[in-house]
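Please review the protein record below. Tell me whether the encoded fold seems credible here:
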Amino acid sequence: MSFAELGLSPKVLAAVETAGYTVPTPIQAQAIPRVLERRDVLGIAQTGTGKTAAFTLPMLTLLEKGRARARMPRTLILEPTRELAAQVEENFVRYGSNSGLSVALLIGGVSFGDQDAKITRGVDVLIATPGRLLDHFERGKLLLTGVELLVIDEADRMLDMGFIPDIERICKLVPFTRQTLFFTATMPSEIKRITDQFLHNPVQVEVSRPATAATTITQSLVHTRSAPHEKRQILRNLIRTAENLKNAIIFCNRKTEVALLHKSLVKHGFAATALHGDMDQRSRMAALDSFRNGDMTLLVASDVAARGLDIPDVSHIFNFDVPIHADDYIHRIGRTGRAGRLGAAFTLVSPADGKHVAAIEALTGISIAFTGEPLPPAEDDGEGERHGRRGRPERGGRTEGSRRGGAPEGRRGKRAESGPEARERLEPKERAEPRERLEPKEHSATRERAEPHERSEPRERSEPRERSEPRERSAPRERSEPRERSEPRRQDRPAPAHPAAARSGPPRPHREERDEPAVLGLGDHVPSFLLTPIRRKSK
């Protein structure tokens, strides 16, 4: 079958022949006639099968009749990332060179002014990311009531990036009578719910089993360790020894790892560039252009570059990190082996990546073989993760001396004494006696009850308390009558102490009764019931 048999217009056929394409891919052969019939289409196909041209070519044919109005685009194409949106715009410029249609690109990282100017003049094809499209709509610069054809591309990627609520809102803003084209590589339950809600009696086009890789890609696993510097070394060896390597994309799971790996490759003399989400739009496009033009051989990227990027003739794919989601593996390796070309994909697998590899094999339905011999176990020479650069133990670790129960050596090389004899010299039993005399008896009794195992013979140390009880100090009152004694001068009497000290110190003479009022001192402010001892009968 040729493109001429699909019902495309002569202008579109001429542009396709100029681009060098003569035979359509399976999804193009099945989807293009259905789109021209104004039917809703649900396209399920693996990446790299020509899905973009499957909706671009019939859309150009349908748009040859009619004219766009100001701020009311005729068709709307939603893409998950800026790179995919820019790539679709390039397809429209390439295939629509003879049509004279206007195209506008609404993506982040570009000023609103230029985009507003294009929308105001009127556009036939509007290509946008969901976030920037809603920004223009909320500012009142865009009307979606004139959309005749809605295309949702890479729907499963939209789901991964959290754009499904935005997609639902946009679908409610466009007319109910529009035609909807829905393309995805996988069909999770959430995507199935969206298709049931917004597609009306769709024609399902499925050219291959979901989540399968092209048969022209040779897949291999490579043994590696978890240490980042060892993984980078193994990757460099793979790049140097790879057969027929023309260019390659290296995928990492994190943006920080992309930056570190790119810096390492440049340091070792490789022509590499980076692409990740923290880069501005100008830097992203510059990196892609340098890789497409052949100025850079290696492109280190995160998953932002895994979906839908049409970079021709990529010979190799290297997964520096095993993708966490098995679907991402399909999209990563789909950057090579496109349009029937041969490709190779290598995935570095550490011992901790076993469950992710099992999920990938369960999704693809094939067993991926390892290349090369397994790495020998790392030698425990004391310089790995346990020790630092100078052989110091890790934080919280113990030295040989501390494991034997002793203390580490001091600054002069002498090891501190340990064992029972050192404890006896450091904590002699006689040390507890002066401590007992300095403390109040109530405190010493408490310590004896709380720490019986640290005291020897607690009964003998508690004898002073038994011999002198505070309640038996009424003897001075019985031996002397206060009125028969000669009364001493008040200033000669010692000031009464604190009650706690009175209980712990020697017996204090009782307060004498006087008939004459006296000037009270500072100590007389203590309540009398605390100063007067309790009289007890002698046995």
